[in-house]
Structure formats: C-alpha cells, structure tokens
Amino acid sequence: MNSLVRARRFSVTPMMDWTDRHCRFLHRFLTRESLLFTEMVTSAAIMHGDIDRHLRFDPVEQLVALQLGGSDPAELAAATAIAHDYGYAEINLNVGCPSDRVQSGRFGACLMAEPDLVAQCVRAMRDATDCPITVKCRIGIDDQDVETGLDRFADAMVEAGVNALYVHARKAWLQGLSPKENRTIPPLDYDRVYRLRARLAPLQVLINGGIDTLDLAEAQFAHTDGVMLGRAAYHTPMLLADVDRRFFGVTAEPVTLEAVMHAMATYADRELAAGARINNITRHMLGLAAGLPGARQFRQIMSVDACKPGADTSVLFRALDAVNRHRFAEAG
After folding, report:
1. d(CA 203, CA 196)
2. Which residues, at least 6 apart from 271, have a Cβ–Cβ distance to it below 8 Å?
3. Quick one: average pLDDT of 14-29?
4. Is 23 marked active-site?
C-alpha cells in the first residue's frame, strides 16, 4: 500500500477560510499519518493572483492535497501544471460546495448536473501532471435521483481516470438552503455511499458528512476506504492526537497540550518574523483545551489577547498557564 492510499484512511476535510497553512501545521503536529487538505483555491486565483500565497506550504505538512475549484478544463489544467511544482500529494477537484459564491462561478456542487464537463476537467488535469487527481462531490443535488444520478456522475469520473472519490453523504440543495443548512438539513445517506464503493471497487471511495467522533469514523471502515472529518477536527483538534494510534497502528507517546503549545510557539515565532500576525495562528487553536478545566479562559486569551497590538507568542503560554492553574487547583 503506497503512502497516499494509506493516508486517505483518515483526512481532514478542506474548509474554506479554515484549513489554511497555519491550521495544517497544527493538525500535522497532532497526526503524522493523516492526509491534510488545503482550503479550496480557484483555478482563476492561481492564474491571476499571488501564486505563492495560494500554493505555498511547509514541507512538514505533507502529505497535503490541494483542492481546486473551477469548471474550465484548460484553466484547471494550467493551474494544475503550476501546482505540480509545489509538490502536493494529490490534486482534488471540488464538486461539492453549495455556496452561492461558488455557484455563481460555475463550480462546486452545481457541476454535479454536468458530469461530462467534470470528466473533461479531470482529463485535462490528469494530462497536466502525474500527480493523482481526485474529486470531492455530494450524493446528488436538488431533485436528482441519488441512484442513477450519482452512478452516472461516478462512472464519468472513472472513465476520465479519477484516482479516488470523496463523497459527502448528503444531497446539496442549491435553491432554498444556505451553505450552513446544507451541512445539516439534507438527510445523511451513508448506505448510498456504501453501495457506490461496492460497485466501484477497487477505486477508493472515501466518506464525509456528519462524522464527528473517532468512534463514528471507525464504524465507517467496514464499508468505505476512508473517512473525512471536518468541523469536529477543527473545533476539537486534540481528537486528532489519537488518530495515528487508533487508525494507523502507530505506537508513540500521546501528544500533550504542553507539547502542542510549545511546538506552535516555535512555529509562530518564525511566522511572526516573516510578517504573520499571531491571531492568524491562534484562531485555529481555540479548541485545543476543549473539555479541560480552564478551557473558557484558554479560549478567551487565545482569541482576545492575541488580537491586541504587539501580541506575540507569550499569549500561548499565558493560555497554557490558565489551564495548568485550573488543573492544579482541582488536583489540590
């Protein structure tokens, strides 16, 4: 089993405005084995924007998948060729995001109505790189039949040479529901993803949607090739510290909050010297103390104090001290 196929067993869902490089650095410290994703980057942004800002990542983050958004095969191919030189483990095409902003650009979930066009995009991307090309989609949109519609879409992807499919086990309703509502209101249909995986084997089919604990993740392995966790991994990141032991058979000392805070302080010092702001890093760390005594004060220090003029990595240690004081008080 190659390293990428293995890493897909557990991945952190790409989330716009969330899974930036600071977030990925934190997540990689917590899990060495999982596949991490960038937030979605449009092909147009790569072609017409600051390429390095969109594509740069720290080598320690690997294995990292780049998620692209777009619907123009030629533009996606050009963006893929540029991204190739950055060394991503795979390049993923977003065909699942239901936001109005994405629809207006004719990419994301609305493309599930155009499987032939998506297949053209996948072929063009494959021709531009030897990096694996994958697709993330929904089980359907609006009034599509989830049996025939998803099969037709998936078959077009297989014919185009897709390397794996990540499937959010909900429909996306493009009219009448907000992106937030689309994450919760359409009912989950895990069985539909299971049937797809059984039909497409040996192609890897990975499942996403409504999985918010490692117990729920583990239950999916009997039916799929891997699991994606999104908001649960973001809001309670310490759960990632048990992923390598539980899902990859890695035996190592458990990662502690103290170790995470010291590692992130070292990282933040380097990033601040390069012009970053400390709150750009701490905003991804707010949930690290979730469930611990002093978690509320930890979160307040990391969110409020980090935004004050002149804030630096001392914020991290003050937040850690707040948790430790509560621990010692309870122990005493």
Report:
1. 10
2. 22, 280, 281
3. 95
4. no
**Helix 314-331 and helix 257-273: axis angle, to 10°?**
170
CB of 148 closer than 8 Å to CB of 116: no
List, for residues 73-127, the tens digit of each pLDDT value.
999 999 999 999 999 999 999 998 877 665 556 778 889 999 999 999 999 999 9
Per DSSP, the residues of 308-323 read STT--THHHHHHHHHH
In CATH terms, 3-248 corresponds, of 3.90.420.10, 3.65.10.10, 1.10.760.10, 3.20.20.70, to 3.20.20.70
Q: Where are the chain's structural domains?
A: 3-248, 257-331
Smallest CA-to-CA distance from 214 within 233, 196, 197 is with 233
| CB within 8 Å of 115: residues ≥ 6 apart | 152, 153, 156, 157
Do domains 3-248 and 257-331 share one topology? The answer is no
pLDDT digit string (tens) for 300-309?
999 999 999 9
Q: What b/e string do you get for 264-283 counting C-beta neighbours within 10 Å, with b at 16 or more? A: bbebbeebbeeeeebbbbbb
Task: Find out whether 242 and 255 touch, Cβ atoms under 8 Å.
Answer: no
At 188, the amino acid letter reads: L
Peptide bond into 63 cis (omega under 30): yes
DSSP assignment string, 59-73: GGG-SEEEEEE---H
What global pTM score does this model have? 0.94
How does DSSP assign 91-132, residue by residue? EEEEE----HHHHHTT-GGGGGG-HHHHHHHHHHHHHT-SS-
CA separation for the pair 157, 123 (Å, rounded): 9
What's the topology of domain 257-331?
A: Four Helix Bundle (Hemerythrin (Met), subunit A) (1.20.120)
- Of 292, 208, 213, 286, which is closest to residue 246 (Cα–Cα)? 213
Active-site option among 97, 110, 121, 131: 97
